């Protein structure tokens, strides 16, 4: 193919245009397509940027189906935690009753949370950086299995070390969960053009709805397996035993109360087998169904040239964080969350429910706690954007303060079983307030920075 110049004295030079030459043709030179006409060739279309490059430029190169992928991942994590804590909550609620001898059950629970405190300082950042959020979550979920397995042979040298392993794994598990939900919430907010704080609250509300239903399933399993009642209608306990229930309960009196007898080992083994299967299922769901955060820039953080913080530096950074006024104001609330959950999971189940109704009734009463807690978690997470945070937290203070005052005066008795369910349900209302409001408050203060840096 040839091209010639114009007429009337114009340049009549003939140039050959190669069909296969693409942009490398002499005919294109000086045709005004580059830099105002003086370039050596036409402007080429820009190359497509990769997902990571788009992310670094603050752009999201995603299809319209991406929001459904995010919702799928949030649902999968919520489902995995529900199954995981079906096992753990069901086991933990029985510890102070089935392993009451020498306080073994309560000591093992204390070991869990003591290890959790230390793990929170040193483990999460290091593990997430090395394994990424998804695989940190998988490994951490597996740390719950030894504690469930130790129920087959509950001794101080089996149950307490297993509790330490669980506590060490729990810190990176919760950190990776929070990182995942917060990060995908930021992406979802961009896709739907909504406020990121509102999306975070909504995601956490849905998560805690699923998570709190674990109380229902875990306690339903324990109550159905422990089918032979040890108290209430099955045995006759004298009035003195009932007088020593509730606020007057003393661990030294457990041998005088038939309601507190340990169930048969066969039933304990059956419960533990079911719970171990739940742990394995939760790990499989996260490993197979949940997408990694790589598509949202997680590798950027792992490839950072910044030096890795040592454990001492992490401890110093934590201490420095405690100097901030907002962090100091959160500390009493987080301490209270630990105390109120320890009370409902250990003291209430043993001193009130098991003492007066028997160990098989623990599951049924805690089902009420779990159901109310789950519904209120979703409700409070949804209405916060309409009425604000203060009224909801005020409700939590009012409910828990009033309930504790009443429980100091209440003398539990099997003739009034509805009071046990009422107390558990109201405690679930207060707990839902702290779970949804304090957790998302601690995260949303830094959510915009996190969504911008994308470094879990």
Automatic annotation (TrEMBL):
* Alphabetically ordered keywords of this record: Membrane, Transmembrane, Transmembrane helix
Location within or outside the cell:
Membrane
Give me the segments passing through the membrane.
70-87, 107-128, 135-153, 159-175, 195-214, 274-294, 329-349, 361-380
What this protein is called in its record is UNC93-like protein
Q: Which family does it belong to?
A: Belongs to the unc-93 family.
Provide the GO MF annotations for this entry. potassium channel regulator activity
Q: Please give, as recorded in its UniProt entry, the membrane topology of this protein.
A: Multi-pass membrane protein
Query: Which species is listed as the source?
Result: Acanthoscelides obtectus (Bean weevil)
Q: Name one GO cellular component term.
A: striated muscle dense body
The segment annotated Disordered runs over 27-49
- Compositional bias of type Gly residues: which residue ranges? 32-41
**Do you know which InterPro entries this protein is assigned to?**
Ion_channel_UNC-93 (IPR010291), MFS_trans_sf (IPR036259), UNC-93_regulatory (IPR051951)
Gene Ontology biological-process entries: regulation of muscle contraction; regulation of potassium ion transport
């Amino acid at each position: 193919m040839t091209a010639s110049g114009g007429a009337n004295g114009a340049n009549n030079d003939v140039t050959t245009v190669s069909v296969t030459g693409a942009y490398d043709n002499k005919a294109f030179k000086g045709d005004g397509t580059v830099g105002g006409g003086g370039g050596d060739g036409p402007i080429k279309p820009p190359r497509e940027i990769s997902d990571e490059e788009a992310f670094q430029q603050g752009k999201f190169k995603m299809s319209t189906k991406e929001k459904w992928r995010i919702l799928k991942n949030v649902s999968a994590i919520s489902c995995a935690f529900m199954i995981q804590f079906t096992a753990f909550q069901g086991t933990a609620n029985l510890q102070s009753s089935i392993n009451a001898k020498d306080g073994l059950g309560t000591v093992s629970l204390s070991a869990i949370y003591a290890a959790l405190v230390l793990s929170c300082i040193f483990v999460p950042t290091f593990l997430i950086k090395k394994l990424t959020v998804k695989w940190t979550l998988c490994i951490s979920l597996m740390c719950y299995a030894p504690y469930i397995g130790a129920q087959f042979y509950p001794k101080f040298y089996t149950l307490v070390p297993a509790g330490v392993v669980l506590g060490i794994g729990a810190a990176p598990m919760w950190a990776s969960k929070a990182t995942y939900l917060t990060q995908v919430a930021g992406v979802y907010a961009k896709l739907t053009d909504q406020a990121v704080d509102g999306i975070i609250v909504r995601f956490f509300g849905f998560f805690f709805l699923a998570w709190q239903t674990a109380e229902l399933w875990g306690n339903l399993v324990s109550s159905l397996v422990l089918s032979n009642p040890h108290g209430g209608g099955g045995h006759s306990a004298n009035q003195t035993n009932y007088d020593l229930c509730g606020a007057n309960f003393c661990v030294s009196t457990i041998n005088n109360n038939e309601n507190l007898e340990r169930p048969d080992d066969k039933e304990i083994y059956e419960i533990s087998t079911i719970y171990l299967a739940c742990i394995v299922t939760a790990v499989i769901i996260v490993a197979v169904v949940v997408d990694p955060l790589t598509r949202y820039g997680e590798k950027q953080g792992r490839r950072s040239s910044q030096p890795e913080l040592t454990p001492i530096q992490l401890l110093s950074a934590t201490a420095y964080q405690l100097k901030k006024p907002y962090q100091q104001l959160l500390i009493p609330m987080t301490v209270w969350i630990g105390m109120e959950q320890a009370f409902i999971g250990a003291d209430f189940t043993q001193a009130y429910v098991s003492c007066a109704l028997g160990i098989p009734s623990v599951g049924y009463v805690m089902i009420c706690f779990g159901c109310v807690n789950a519904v209120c978690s979703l409700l409070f997470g949804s209405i916060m954007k309409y009425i604000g945070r203060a009224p909801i937290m005020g409700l939590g203070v009012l409910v828990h303060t009033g309930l504790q005052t009443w429980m100091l005066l209440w003398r539990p008795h099997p003739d009034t079983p509805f009071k046990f369910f009422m107390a558990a349900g109201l405690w679930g209302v207060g707990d839902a307030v702290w779970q949804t409001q304090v957790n998302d408050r601690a995260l949303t203060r830094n959510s915009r920075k996190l969504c911008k840096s994308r470094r879990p």
